[in-house]
Design a protein that fits this description.
Residues 1-19 have a biased composition (Low complexity). InterPro entries: Phytyl_CoA_dOase-like (IPR008775). Residues 1-21 are annotated as: Disordered. The structure is a single chain. The chain contains eight helices and twelve strands. It is of the alpha+beta class. The chain has a single domain (14-298), classed as Jelly Rolls (Sandwich). The strands form two sheets. Strands 1-2-10-7-12-5-4-3 form an eight-stranded mixed sheet. It has a four-stranded antiparallel sheet with strand order 6-11-8-9, with no helix packed on it. Helix 1 (22-33) links the parallel strand 1 and strand 2 (35-38). Helix 1 packs across helix 4 (112-122). The longest helix has 21 residues, at 281-301.
Length: 311
């Protein structure tokens, strides 16, 4: 069921080219609020027109059954069936070598400026980054919503269990790059640093007016990084075009900590096949060693299971 969301707007977590020391400011905003919006002007090498065209072709192929890696309605979490007949709300594996536009998407994923922000937000050196996921969130074929959740903490967790997990480093950066204006992400700022309140714990899964919630409004070209364990949900309008690139990058410091979050999407089944041969040499070299770390994670982790297999 999709319900109307009533929200408050905030602008405290926006970073632009005029922001003094934008990397530090972005890190402070993410730590404080659990999310930060980066201006399109910070990423001048993104080719939005080309990305829009390629993303539109991918969405069309996915809806018609010509691209098997999809997020299908009404399932919220992996694994998803490969049958698009009930509609889709996402496209998986943009970097898969069988995607005709995988090199274009790779240029945005391995963009030097994006990687600098990822490293700054994680708190690691550029050379410690690890390839993880690059997917796409699209207009659903029917109105659709995700329940309130944290990506790596089940709803059944006690307050003590939440705090124990939230006290550990995140070891990754997760972002949405909007190719069209996007107001689908709803979250509670600051909830990444605390256990749920009684009101949050007692709320209905699709509560339309969670205390303190906001909607993250992105203009085309803006990037929103957010803590994946912030209390959040998605509300998706079938009447509004949506093409939002949804990625994550990790760090070698994570060890196997990120294995389930990443490998449950199936990326380990094909990552070793892509040599990124169409990228320019410096970017290709970086992409190759970041990919090799992902392949190593897959080879060492075995069966990682799923966060919420039946939802």
């Amino acid at each position: 069921m999709v319900t109307q969301v009533i929200t408050t707007t905030t602008t405290t977590s926006s970073i632009s080219a005029s922001t003094p020391n934008p990397y530090k400011a972005a890190k402070e905003a993410l730590d404080r609020d659990g999310f930060v919006i980066l201006s399109a002007s910070l990423f001048p090498s993104f080719d939005l027109d080309a990305l829009q065209t390629a993303a539109s072709h991918m969405a069309t192929a996915a809806r018609s059954g010509k691209w098997p890696y999809i997020r299908t309605l009404p399932k919220q979490f992996p694994p998803w069936p490969q049958d698009p007949s009930q509609g889709i709300w996402g496209v998986q594996h943009l970097l898969h070598p069988s995607n005709p536009s995988h090199s274009l998407f790779a240029q945005s994923y391995f963009d030097p400026e994006l990687l600098r922000y990822a490293a700054a937000l994680i708190g690691c050196a550029d050379d410690d980054l690890t390839m993880e996921l690059y997917n796409m969130l699209v207009r659903p074929d029917a109105d659709f919503a995700l329940r309130w959740h944290r990506d790596d903490i089940p709803a059944s967790a006690t307050a003590a269990e939440e705090l124990q997990r939230l006290s550990r480093p995140g070891y990754h950066a997760q972002w949405n790059l909007a190719l069209y204006d996007d107001s689908s992400l709803v979250l509670v700022p600051g909830s990444h640093k605390r256990a749920r309140t009684d009101a949050e714990r007692d709320a209905e899964p699709y509560e339309p007016n969670m205390p303190g919630q906001i909607t993250v409004h992105l203009k085309a070209g803006q990037v929103a990084f957010y803590n994946n364990n912030i209390l959040h949900r998605g509300v998706y309008d079938s009447k509004k075009e949506r093409l939002t690139l949804h990625g994550s990058i990790g760090t070698v410091a994570a060890g196997g900590e990120r294995a389930r979050n990443v490998l449950q999407h199936g990326v380990g089944e094909w990552a070793k096949e892509d040599d990124f041969g169409e990228l320019e040499p410096e970017m290709r070299a970086r992409a190759t060693w970041m990919r090799e770390r992902l392949v190593k994670l897959g080879s060492q982790s075995g069966d990682v299971g799923f966060f919420s297999k039946d939802e």
